Amino acid sequence: MNPGRLVYALLLLAAFALPSTAQAMHISEGILPPQWAALWFAIAIPFVAWGLRDLRVKSAREPFFKPMVGLIGAAVFVISCMPIPVPTAGSCSHPCGTGMAALLIGPTLTVVVSSVALLLQALFLSHGGLTTLGGNIVSMGIVGAFTGWAVFRLSCRLGLPVWVAAFLCGLLSDWATYAATAFELASALHGDGSLLHLFATICLSFLPTQLPLGIVEGVITAGVYRFIATRRPSLLECLGVEARRGPCACGRKMEGVQ
Amino acid sequence: MKNVIIVAALVLAFAAGLTFLLGRHPANWAGVDETVVEKYAEAAGRPARKPYINTDQGDLLLFFFLIAGAAGGFIAGYCFRELFPPEKKP
Fold first, then answer.
1. Which of A34, A39, A73, A227 would you call most buried, defined as having the most Cβ atoms within 10 angstroms of its Cβ?
2. ipTM
3. Which residue stretches of A128-161 are H helix?
């Protein structure tokens, strides 16, 4: 079977296979006290504004960028509300897709697509919450995206093969997202107890589920990278994932197709 | 025909594995929101409240998830075809 068709079919299958109970990393409505909810919103809003500005600039420069953001946005939306059963833990959780998104469209635009995905999930899917939206954007959109992006860049600079860097990007962005969620919960809920102790306890509780899921997310990220590198390597150059070997031709190719 | 047989075999193998796993495993497969997030929130006296738009009623949530999945799948597929157009056969 053609690998492009296989990926296309899997993507559609995953989209239609969303089950009804799909909550995991998202902090539910009402858990964060108002002052903490406001703080996370205050941190998230400048990043969303930065991402929107980047979207306008990059879309004007590269014609292929809008469909790329659309594809990645849809993928992040689907991935982040798809719970995966982890047999070793006996529970379910979901990957985030933000490592893959940061690798392909950059961390600031990942914040934007994550915010849209989280808002839709909070509004219509009872997944996350409106008051906790800022906290969820910070953990999944900001921490996940910037960690994945930094890990990818650092790994490439250290001379690791690009697919290994992509794997580490997915793996560590997932773990960082859940660590950020643990920090948000611990900072809001520790009361008179130790913040560090509660943070470590929540991290340990996430561990049995998230350890294998992080590896799954790493494999997905490396697989997506590998697919694009095989099918349309020029796209990776134009996106800045790989060093350019010539002028960007993605826009002209797309115009020819349409 | 060969592809159909391969897909059918994979689906049957998946169903058999799932039957074995779900039959033997005592877990309830709850999400980590329930087993971790809400557990610590309740212990701290801040249990989760119902969403402002509560679609978690009967089959309503299933309907919204299917709509979301269909919309997400359509957008992803549409953009995918723009970025990775079918290769022309010689």
1. A73
2. 0.84
3. 133-136, 144-157
Q: Which of A33, A93, A189 sits opposite B32 (nearest CB)?
A: A93
A54 contacts A246 by C-beta, under 8 angstroms = no
Name the one residue in this structure whose structure tokens are 């939306």: A77
Vertex A168 angle, CA B81 and A154, to 5°: 105
DSSP states of A180-208:
HHHHHHHHHH-TTS-HHHHHHHHHHHHHH
pLDDT attached to residue A186: 96
Nearest to A94 by CA among A83, A109, A78, A107: A83
Q: How does pLDDT run across A212-253, given as a tens digit for each residue?
A: 999 999 999 999 999 999 988 888 888 878 766 666 656 555
How near does any CA of chain A get to the CA of B36, in Å?
A: 6
B32–A73: do the CB atoms touch at under 8 Å? no
**Residues of A with CB below 8 A from B34's CB?**
23
Tokens of B59: 């089959």
Q: Is A124 on the interface with B (CB under 8 A)?
A: yes
* Tokens standing for residue A10: 């899997």
State whether residue A240 is helix, strand or coil: coil
DSSP B31: B
Residue type, A49: A
**pLDDT tens digit sequence for A60-73:** 988 889 999 999 99
